[in-house]
Amino acid sequence: MATSDQTAMGTSDKTPATEIGHTPEKAPWPLWEVFVRSSRGLSHVHAGSLHAPDAEMAVRNARDLYTRRNEGVSLWVVPASSIVASDPDAKGEFFESPKGKDYRHATYYKKSEGVKHL
Amino acid sequence: MATKTQSPRDAQLQPVPSAEDEAGQAYFDKIIAEDSRIEPADWMPAGYRKTLTRQISQHAHSEIIGMQPEANFITRAPSLKRKAILMAKVQDEAGHGLYLYSAAETLGTPRDELFDQLLSGKAKYSSIFNYPALTWADMGAIGWLVDGAAIVNQVPLCRASYGPYGRAMVRVCKEESFHQRQGFEILLELASGTPAQKQMAQDAVNRFYAPALMMFGPNDDESPNSQQSMRWNIKRFSNDELRQRFVGMIQEQVRVLGLTLPDDEIRFNEETGKWEYGELDWNEFYEVLKGRGPCNAQRMERRREAHENGAWVREAAAAYAAKKAQKAQVA
Q1: Which pLDDT belongs to residue A95?
Q2: Which of A39, B193, B257, B298 is spaced 20 to 30 A from B162 at the CA atom?
């Protein structure tokens, strides 16, 4: 089962084309995640997802779906199944910055307050 | 994801919630209490998933069915400019449907299953699209009143607690204001035209006013699911709150148009600070919802026809993709 939005919701090793009862022509099209670069100098940002039979059609569909109003100068499409996400259940443990490491931030250093260009 | 109504016996057979479910529920409650967002990979109550799947897919179906009344007028648009505008609008509705299907899919129901639910008549869509568009002025009334009501409904949905739904709605809302303005402009031009044109505009407003108000759904005391949706931060305002807000917004606008609304009971209540309006015909609403509106059969037939006639295109695209992939492997 394909899920979009960069987050795997449980993976299935069945590819759409091999699901029971589907000939390749009738199988659901795979899911693609779409990233749009809104202008030169900026990163591609996730815009959404769509279904398409192959990469070429995915790029064309992404153009029609996500850039009808000059929203982008470049598009990426990525098969949703290729995205590896961090474990959603890890939550806090995975991301929480260990306490007592304030010294990684400039604001930790108070003695230099008021000194120019620092 | 389908959970049937449980008989007391079934309820007894329900397993005790696992430690995992309890932790999931606690985390979910915390996120909702913080007014933060739930994302697809998070644990969520089965009811939350079911409610959202139904709401988002119905919303998607409405966008797709909603293409029909206006698409019917593309060949009859009065100028090349209006034709181009109408085509852009209908294309937007298709886009909105696709954003929403993507969002619904993140809850676990595959796209083709969502399509089947619409085509089989199992899923509903907004009752407004079962009313016919009879004249060119209806394109104006649909844009002004129907898209206008949709905006009032959709703006708070941008803050819905389910992340993908909120993000889809942000995209939809950005595009929707063009829809409303173009409709308003159509009506304004007709209203400042010949008496016959003005009458055509008035007639369209008369027919779409009440159905547009009913788009917000039944009155609050008839809408039991709303309470739960509001506790889950999916819905932010009640049906009646949104409806009276919309009635207030269109008062000034209808004056600019030089037209009137077909309701003598509209007044601003100084005490409550709210707009009041005449009782709507809820029997009609439920009849249309049950499939007995003026255009239900036609809309569904047209949708099925479009789906079936498009089958060869989908199959050809898939076959071409498979062939190309094979060639690439050989090379």
Answers
A1: 76
A2: A39
| Whether the Cβ atoms of residue B262 and residue B213 lie closer than 8 Å to each other | no
Chain B touched by A5 (CB under 8 Å): yes
The answer to whether residue A43 sits within a structural domain is: yes
Structural domains counted in chain A: 1
Structure confidence by residue, pLDDT tens digits, B40-83? 999 999 999 999 999 999 999 999 999 999 999 999 999 999 99
Percent of chain B with pLDDT over 90: 90
**Interface list for A 84-113 with B (CB within 8 A):** 85, 88, 91
Tell me the CATH number at A100.
3.10.20.520
Q: What is the pLDDT of residue A15?
A: 43
Residue of chain B nearest A12, judged by CA positions: B108
Rounded CA-CA distance B78/B71 in Å is: 14
Closest CA to A65 of A53, A51, A54: A51
pLDDT (tens digit, 9 = 90+) per residue, A57-113?
999 999 999 999 999 999 999 999 999 988 776 666 777 766 788 888 888 899 988
Q: Do B106 and A3 touch (CB under 8 A)?
A: yes
Residue A5 counted as domain residue: no
Chain A residue nearest residue B23, CA to CA: A89
pLDDT of residue B6: 46
Q: Which residues of chain B have pLDDT under 70?
A: 1-15
Residue A13 lies in a domain: no
> Which of A6, A32, A34, A54 to mutate: most B Cβ within 10 Å?
A54
Residue A15 lies in a domain: no
Between B39, B88, B317, which is nearest A57 by CB? B317
- Token pair, residue A55, equals 């990469």
Kindly state whether A3 is in contact with chain B, defined as any CB-CB distance less than 8 angstroms.
yes
> Could you list the residue range(s) of the whole structural domain that residue A66 is in?
28-108
Please tell me the pTM assigned to this model: 0.88
How buried is residue B308: exposed, middle or buried, by Cβ count under 10 Å (0-12/13-18/19+)? exposed
- Asked whether the beta carbons of residue A8 and residue B41 sit closer than 8 angstroms, the reply is yes
List the single residue in A with minimal CA-CA distance to B169: A48
Taking the C-alpha atoms of residue B302 and residue B279, their distance in angstroms, rounded to an integer, is 33
| Tokens describing residue B91 | 């294309």
Nearest-Cα distance to chain A for B315, in Å, is 5
Q: How far apart are CA B256 and CA A26, in angstroms?
A: 53
In the predicted model, is pLDDT for residue A49 greater than 60? Answer: yes
